[in-house]
Amino acid sequence: MQSNLLPNATLAEFYRLAVLLTGHAKAAERIMAEVLGEVQAQFEQLRNEANRRAWLAVRIRERCCAERPETPPAPGLVRGAGEESGNPELLQIEAFLVGQRFHALPEPERSALALFHLDLFTTAEIAGILKLTPDGLAETIGRGRNLLREALRAMRGPAPESP
């Protein structure tokens, strides 16, 4: 495969997409290997960069959604709302918990948020990949953000009462 067909930066971004959609690095690695094998088989049809990127996103999303394992419920956050911490281990735990909540989002909200925030495509391209209208994409992203916000609030537990 030509190195300019799939530059390392592109592969890294699509790997991040697979990790976000599966919630697991090993599953993302396996899916990327399978999809890259398909790229070699489809080489002639994927010469156009825009077509190639959209094709990759669709194939990765299809495979990630097809094998989505159940995620065990995550424990609450270790620190309360408003507490600051420079502890890297605590921040890693929180990032893991947020990732679990993200992975638990329904489709197409999970894919819409992942594609939008990874900044791989324009909003028109994302709408096409997800087979949504631009207005439908905006609603889906908003709904996904609200679901994620609610899940994060639930992780923190009830807000402390003010005196």
Q: Explain this structure to me?
A:
By secondary structure, the protein is mostly helical. The protein has two domains: 1-69; 87-163, Arc Repressor Mutant, subunit A (Orthogonal Bundle), CATH 1.10.10. The protein contains seven helices and no strands. The protein has helices at residues 8-22, 25-41, 49-66, 88-103, 109-118, 123-130, 134-156. Helix 5 (109-118) packs antiparallel against helix 6 and helix 5 packs across helix 7. The longest helix has 23 residues, at 134-156. Mean pLDDT is 78; it is low at 72-83.
Keywords summarizing the entry:
163 residues, mainly alpha, Arc Repressor Mutant, subunit A, 2 domains, 7 helices, globular
Helix amount, in percent? 55-70%
If helices are DSSP runs of H or I spanning 4 or more residues, what is the number of helices?
A: 7
Please tell me the overall pLDDT. 78
CATH fold field value of the largest domain = Arc Repressor Mutant, subunit A
The computed structural class is: mainly alpha
CATH class of the largest domain: Mainly Alpha
Beta-strand content: under 5%
| Morphology | globular
Low-confidence blocks of residues: 72-83
| Biggest sheet descriptor | none
Alpha-carbon distance between the termini? 65 Å
Order of H and E elements: HHHHHHH
SS elements, strand count: 0
CATH superfamily of the largest domain: Winged helix-like DNA-binding domain superfamily/Winged helix DNA-binding domain
Radius of gyration, CA atoms, in whole angstroms: 18 Å
What is the second-level CATH architecture of the largest domain? Orthogonal Bundle
> How many independent structural domains?
2
